[in-house]
Design goal:
Elements (H helix, E strand, L loop, with lengths): L8 E5 L5 E2 L2 E2 L3 H10 L4 E5 L6 H10 L9 E3 H12 L4 E5 L2 H9 L3 E2 L6 E4 L7 H12 L3 E4 L5 E2 L6 E2 L1 H12 L4 E2 L5 H10 L7 E5 L2 H10 L3 E5 L6 H4 L8 E3 L11
Parallel strand pairs: 1-4, 1-13, 4-5, 6-7, 6-8, 8-9, 9-12, 13-14, 14-15
Antiparallel strand pairs: 2-3, 10-11
Length: 260
């Protein structure tokens, strides 16, 4: 295997890496501080499209993880960038929260249910039967189907919740149309994030807690991949996958000294 270049830029997942159920993972604050002191380009990524970067910045700051809002990259932002490149100034029927609608407004998209170019499905805690019915009919009438991410379930204090991937499957079953998923594991989200900070894949690392999204996306984007064991994937799960991360560590605390 060819020797990789030293890591100059860092991408890290948020939930399961920097925080868990609203509580910072030990060492996360030291890792962020080290990145900022070393002036290393970095992004904190999330497949969750509910929140705007401003919302997430406030949420992270409250638990002691303080860094610029510009260092947050969501599947909603990646979706908006993709649509802006594909069909600038287009129209969309959106099922989602402020994170998604704000990102689309910011690129000049018109949100409408009158013959939209796209149906865009994101995360929401209040999926409406009426909205899903509308989406199905619009897709049947020719709207292109986009989804922010393929995550099938999301966490809550009460247990698992159906997420974008599960709802997308419902729409697919009703229409026969598969969505194009923008978020992880699509390496498009990694590449758009790298472009946002002027980084190159061969000298960047992706830190995540999931083999099926974080590690796969980083691998397919040509990055070094680091799995932390503070989230979804456990050590016993790693060998079940046909690919491996470059490195496995217990937590992000083990990576502080690697930032130089």
């Amino acid at each position: 295997m060819a020797e990789r270049k030293p890591i100059e830029s860092w991408l890290t997942d948020m939930d399961g890496v920097l925080m868990h159920e609203g509580i910072p993972v030990p060492g996360a604050d030291a890792f962020i501080k080290r990145l900022r002191e070393a002036d290393r380009p970095f992004l904190v990524l999330t497949n969750n499209s509910i929140y705007t970067p401003r919302d997430l910045h406030a949420r992270l700051s409250r638990i002691g993880l303080d860094f610029p809002m510009a260092n947050i990259w969501t599947s909603a932002l990646a979706t908006a960038q993709f649509l802006d490149e594909q069909r600038p100034g287009g129209t969309a029927y959106v099922i989602g929260e402020a994170g998604l609608t704000t990102a689309l407004h910011d690129i000049g998209y018109v949100l409408t249910d009158a013959e939209p170019d796209y149906v865009v499905l994101g995360e929401t805690r209040t999926y409406s039967f009426e909205a899903l019915t509308k989406a199905i009919r619009l897709i049947n009438d020719g709207a292109r189907f986009i989804a922010t991410n393929p995550d099938e379930i999301g966490p809550s204090m009460e247990g698992a919740l159906p997420a974008t991937g599960s709802v997308a499957a419902l729409i697919t079953k009703a229409t026969g149309r598969e969505p194009y998923f923008i978020g992880k594991p699509n390496p498009l989200m990694m590449r758009s994030g790298l472009n946002a900070i002027g980084a190159h894949s061969e000298s960047s690392a992706m830190i995540g807690d999931r083999m099926d999204t974080d590690v796969r996306a980083g691998l397919e984007a040509g990055m070094e991949t680091i799995l932390v064991l503070t989230g979804v994937t456990k050590m016993d799960d790693v060998d079940r996958y046909p690919y491996r991360p470059s490195t496995v560590v217990n937590s992000i605390a083990d990576l502080v000294e690697r930032v130089v």
